[in-house]
Amino acid sequence: MPNLNYPSKLLAAAVEQFTSLPGIGERTALRLSLFMLKQDKQLAIKFGNSINELIEKVHFCKICHNISDADTCSVCNSPNRDRSVICVVENINDVMAIEHTQQYNGLYHVLGGVISPMEGIGPGDLNIATLVQRAENPVVGELIFALSATMEGDTTNFYLHKKLRHTNKKISIIARGISIGNELEYTDEVTLGRSIINRQLFDGGLR
User: Fold this and answer.
1) CA end-to-end span of the chain, whole Å?
2) SS3 breakdown of the chain: % helix, strand, coil, rounded to 5?
3) What region, left, alpha or beta, does residue 102 occupy, with left being phi > 0 and alpha being psi -120 to 50 degrees?
4) Is 143 strand, coil or helix?
């Protein structure tokens, strides 16, 4: 429960819900709650409905695990995408970041995280099995590893390389114009775009 003293249990409950969001402290949650309280009731209802629809109606693409309003996302459904290339990313934010560069026209595969023993995340917790299945498709010629330049990202790259070696597909990694330790979604679009274009063959070693 919130630590501050509230004149209303309902306000305290709203604050508690806001603080459950990442990066939201109790005082920020209080400001957001009071802001919503001051707004027209219809705005608050619209806000609540949008959250409900997000939970109830948004899907994860059955092919690449991106978010979608249907069973398959707009990227996988597009006839204009290059289906011979799959870019492997950690999360949906990374898909959005790469799309924003307008330098990539292939498909994606969202792992849903990276291997991190410290956080209890192992290979079985990620969307690796479906990646292997997709890589075995004869249409696919290249896999691009576009994971964050962190130890966890490098460990995941190494593991994926071993799992995909039997496919005999070209495996590349984005160029390290991205600083070591940086997460992909926070990289500026120019650097990220150039890293995609100037990708290098991946030999399976830790960088």
Assistant:
1) 44
2) 45, 15, 40
3) left
4) strand
CB 185 within 8 A of CB 156: no
pLDDT in tens, 129-160: 999 999 999 999 999 999 988 889 989 999 99
Domain 9-57 homologous superfamily, CATH = RecR Domain 1 (1.10.8.420)
Neighbour-count burial of 93, counting CB atoms closer than 10 A to its CB (0-12 exposed, 13-18 middle, 19+ buried): middle
> Roughly what angle, to the nearest 10 degrees, separates helices 92-101 and 189-197?
90
Domain 71-201, CATH 3.40.1360.10 — does that match?
Answer: yes
44: DSSP letter: H
The pTM assigned to this predicted structure is: 0.75
pLDDT classification of 185: cutoffs 50, 70, 90: low
The two three-digit tokens of residue 171, written as one number: 């495996």
Residue 121 DSSP symbol: B
Ordered alpha helix ranges (H), 73-179: 74-77, 92-101, 129-135, 151-164
Q: Which of 190, 118, 180 is nearest to 150 (CA)?
A: 180
Instruction: Provide mean pLDDT across the span 21-49.
Output: 91
**Structural domain boundaries in the chain:** 9-57, 71-201
